[in-house]
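User: Fold this one for me? It's Ion-translocating oxidoreductase complex subunit A.
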Amino acid sequence: MQTLLLLFVANVLVNNVIFARFLGLCPFMGVSRDINSAFSMGLATTFVLTMSSIATWLLEYGVLEPLGLGYLRLLSLIMVIAVMVQLTELYIAKQSPALHRVLGIFLPLITTNCAVLGVALLIVQEQLTLIQTVMYGFASAVGFTLVIVMFAGLRVRLSLSEVPKIFAGNPIAFITAGTLAMAFTGFAGMAK
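Assistant: Here's what I get for Ion-translocating oxidoreductase complex subunit A.
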């Protein structure tokens, strides 16, 4: 249990997919203009990332490794992720058309979100158990959601503030993202 808790905290804060691994920067910058969109994208990504992590583990250790088909790993992972995103998009379109409109193009872009593929590849690389895989995928998604919602809150606050004209818009967003990334590096501690 302690190992799973440490895995969760490590992937949410220390090895955050956005700030430590630099994965998922496109939705991080694109969907973080308001908190509701950021949170919705975080929830959709959480579902896709967790489910694709499970499917990745099952595919890797149930099919690819036993049959010696490791060379098909990347193609297989992309297919699994595409299917998970399509299912998520269909579900959201059916259950909440307003949310589907808000997320717009960014929902299908979860397929190309390198955070989802990166986590799937890291799961295979680190040779985790199924329970660890679920925790790893879920924690990575929670970290993604935490960061994108925090950043959205900061961007909303900045839009209400008076910013020098030269920094208005994307420049101040990138400066804020950099500052937030530096704050997250503090969770890693100091190396001796």
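One thing worth pointing out: The chain is about 75% helix and 0% strand.
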